[in-house]
Amino acid sequence: MLQDFVDLGEYFFRDPEVYDADALKKNWDPEASKRLELLAERLLAIPEFTRAGIEGAIRTLAESMQLKPAKFIHPARLALSGKAGGPGLFEMMELLGRETVVARLRRAVVTLNLSKGR
Questions:
Q1: What is the DSSP letter of 82?
Q2: What values do phi and psi take at 111, rounded to 5?
Q3: pLDDT tens-place string over residues 52-94
């Protein structure tokens, strides 16, 4: 059981080194990096980095771009954890903290664009 926590929750303690290939195929399209860059900027601007503030920022950004929130949620989860599933994204982001979230979003944009040859 403890090993399960280590395996499934490793991203709470260190940046992901690999990204789930199936999730990458499904959730990383040519526009994902642009959306995550915008999301990083939006998250830096919210006054309180709480679950509610994070969720509101993502949903408002998606609405302003006439996109479904999933277009931000799935790539963000992949960028933050390297995985397709896990605990609630907004709660996970709050626990990780603003600095870690923004750094991982930006790192994933660079890393995944390089791996996709962009």
A1: S
A2: -60, -50
A3: 999 999 999 999 999 999 999 999 999 999 999 888 999 999 9
C-alpha–C-alpha distance, residues 112 and 32, integer Å = 10
- Identify the CA nearest to 103 among candidates 40, 57, 53, 45: 40
Structure-block tokens of residue 7: 């395996």
Q: How far apart are CA 102 and CA 97, in angstroms?
A: 9
Instruction: Specify the CATH number of the domain 20-115.
Output: 1.10.10.350
Instruction: Compute CA distances 29 → 34, 71, 74, 87, whole Å.
Output: 10, 9, 11, 23
CA dist., res. 67 & res. 103, Å (int): 24
pLDDT in tens, 38-54: 999 999 999 999 999 99
Q: Which amino acid is at 24?
A: L
